[in-house]
Design brief:
Length: 642
């Protein structure tokens, strides 16, 4: 049923809610009586507004021309404009005649905005007749001269609009908004007592920066970041290849996928054959990397003590060790060590040392240049040094400082992997941690040479002189110095702490880079902050709106509360400008949805598609209608009716 179909009174009214649709009609032209050319002339027939508002009129006996009923007839104003009683009163009010044009469908009228509770102080109910001045009670667009001086109605409306924009920001000083004159004049208007403004609690649902007016790129996650995250997400979800004959369940891990080829030459870790798998833990649902040492029978449970020690180390440049166990699920005795999994990770060797296949550049097949930029090299040096320091400080040694055991898990982010395995495998051998720590430093030097020369053989001690000569052509003297230091003879001063002292300025530079990177990511996060909840809200509205099975249901027709949801959808998405062109304004959409999600008391005017009726309703009400409609749908779905 269309609005206005209620032929009896020309507007529909729903007693179950405080909202009322009001039919829009052309202004009624009352014939002027010959005796009263101006509307003021019949004012003695009309009740004085001061009586309605303040209970008395100080000009009653001083020439006020309006009707003053006997004292017992006067009931003081009790209802706030937004109270249900007041709303019911307004529902039965005379036909609403909009003053301004309604060519912009569903726009919030200024008259509604002007009702904003936050900034229009309610006059104290105890006000005496001395506190106000005489005014024309029958001009609904009247503003006291004090309030706006010489400003036009439009100017004042614009200021009210500005106040509306900041209505939720209680921290904003009205004087900063250029409203000082209005505020001061309002104080003069209600001098005794001053109205008290209650500080509302902050509503963080509204504290967003939804400023994009169009769907420009700047407001969304950059393509490269999104693609990388998407790729990782897909890799995590890749299903295991059929026919690999892998166990379905491995001590609480399932969906086992090998991360390296199972055919061909077996990979070696020292003397042991090894394979790395990705598997999902059934308890937490998180993917982990499982390194399996094939055909290895652990002689004693004390070998696991080393894994426990590694389990306690948490460092941003070390792949954390979760647990270790033995298994016969692969039809042999295997030792499995479980690590954190980094989707799409590469080893340092694969990323920067392994020769790449030649590729076509400008139509020519060319060898790909992989030369590591010096600032990236220093970043790797600082990160690896920091990881080694964390291990040495605990009286342990890494023992797996090798380009094939260091993972590149993000752009220029490296982590020591495969930690703890050698400790578990060689638990019986006598341990001299100091020697292992010296070895860590020497291997660290070898990694730097390998990265600079892109050749593992260059890092062998007998090739060092030639390697230094080669890398000296590309890299600074500082790089050469630290390589010499790391390859140097062991001694009490050759510690990772001293090494970090030597490269102190590079550490500071790396720290700056990290902070900048965190800032950048946080900025990205800010852009994405609201998306999740707004998408949920949009999904709800999508489920509710335009369901064909509800086409004939009374609750969805123009008299039902769910009709409001339809109109609200139009208000949010289908606005048109004064020329009838669609308004594509993302800011408007985000602002509306944020207010809807927060369920604010702010009221908006919804207008029917035929522009024959309008409805003033708060976001809070609309939120309630959407929630109830959606829960009805959900109930119907679960009970199998849909
Ligand atoms: N924790 C992990 N998270 C994600 N991927 C990993 C993890 N550990 C290893 N990998 C991946 O598993 C694959 C095999 O790892 P592995 O350490 O055996 O490297 P490799 O290049 O095969 O070295 P090697 O030649 O010594 O066997 C590599 O592609 C590596 O990126």
């Amino acid at each position: 049923m269309q609005a206005g179909a209620d032929t009896q009174n020309g507007f529909f009214w729903r007693p179950q809610s405080a909202n009322a649709a009001v039919k829009i009609v052309a202004p009624e032209h009352r014939p002027a009586t010959p005796k009263s050319p101006s509307s003021r002339k019949d004012s003695t027939q009309r009740q004085c507004r001061n009586i309605l508002i303040y209970g008395s009129c100080k000009f009653q006996d001083k020439g006020c021309i309006y009707y003053h009923p006997p004292t017992q007839d006067v009931s003081p104003p009790q209802d706030r404009p937004d109270s249900p009683a007041s709303a019911a009163f307004s529902a039965n009010a005379p036909v609403f005649i909009p003053k301004s044009t309604l060519s912009v469908r569903s726009s919030t009228p200024q008259s509604v905005q002007a009702q904003s509770e936050t900034f229009v102080p309610t006059p104290p109910l105890t006000a005496t007749s001395d506190d106000y001045t005489e005014h024309d009670p029958y001009d609904p667009y009247y503003y006291p001269p004090d309030l706006h001086g010489e400003a036009s109605t439009d100017e004042l409306a614009a200021k009210m609009q500005a106040m509306e924009t900041n209505v939720y920001d209680m921290s904003v000083d009205p004087h900063q908004m250029g409203l000082s004159a209005e505020y001061d004049s309002m104080s003069a208007f209600y001098p005794h007592p001053q109205p008290t403004y209650v500080q509302q609690p902050l509503n963080y649902h509204l504290y967003t920066r939804p400023l994009p007016s169009l769907f420009t790129r700047n407001y969304f996650i950059p393509d490269d970041v999104r693609e990388e995250l998407q790729r990782r997400s897909e890799i995590i979800r890749t299903a295991p290849m059929p026919g690999l004959n892998l166990p379905e369940d491995l001590q609480g891990y399932h969906s086992i996928v090998p991360l390296e080829p199972l055919v061909g030459e077996k990979r070696k870790f020292g003397n042991w054959s090894t394979v790395v798998y990705r598997a999902i833990n059934e308890k937490d649902g998180v993917p982990y990397a499982l390194r399996r040492m094939e055909s290895y029978r652990i002689p004693h449970v004390t070998a696991f003590a080393a894994i426990e020690a590694w389990n306690k180390i948490r460092h941003p440049n070390i792949v954390s060790v979760k647990e270790a166990f033995t298994t016969r699920a692969f039809n042999d005795n295997s030792l499995v060590v479980v690590y954190d999994y980094y989707a799409n990770a590469q080893t340092l060797y694969d990323a920067y040392v392994k020769p790449k296949a030649p590729s076509f550049v400008n139509g020519r097949l060319q060898q790909q240049s992989q030369l590591l930029p010096e600032h990236t090299l220093w970043s790797f040096i600082v990160q690896i040094a920091s990881a080694i320091k964390a291990v040495h400080e605990r009286g342990m040694a890494v023992r797996a400082v090798d380009p094939t055991k260091i993972l590149v898990t993000d752009k220029n982010r490296v982590r020591l992997g495969s930690c703890g395995i050698l400790d578990a495998l060689t638990w019986e051998a006598p341990v001299d941690v100091a020697i292992f720590q010296m070895e860590d430093l020497a291997r660290f030097g070898a990694i730097i040479v390998t990265l600079c020369c892109q050749n593992v053989a260059a890092s062998h001690t007998n090739n060092l002189a030639k390697a230094l000569d080669t890398l000296g052509r590309t890299y600074s003297n500082d790089v050469k110095k630290i390589i010499v230091w790391l390859y140097g003879k062991p001694g009490p001063h050759k510690t990772i702490e001293n090494f970090l002292d030597v490269i102190g300025s590079r550490v500071v530079a790396e720290m700056d880079e990290m902070q900048t990177s965190v800032d950048r990511l946080q900025a990205e996060l800010m852009n994405e902050l609201e998306n999740a909840r707004l998408v949920r809200l949009l999904a709800k509205m999508g489920f509710i709106n335009e369901r064909p099975e509800f086409a004939r249901e009374p609750r969805w027709s123009e008299t039902g509360d769910r009709y409001i949801i339809k109109l609200f959808r139009d208000y949010v998405f289908h606005q048109v400008d004064e020329n009838g062109n669609p308004v594509i304004n993302l800011t408007h959409v985000l602002t509306c949805l944020n207010k809807l999600d927060a369920g604010t008391d702010e009221r908006i005017m919804l207008i029917s598609r035929d522009e024959q009726s309008c409805l003033v309703v708060s976001y809070k009400d609309i939120k309630g209608f959407i929630d109830s409609a959606f829960s009805d749908l959900a109930t119907a779905a679960t009970s199998g009716r849909m």
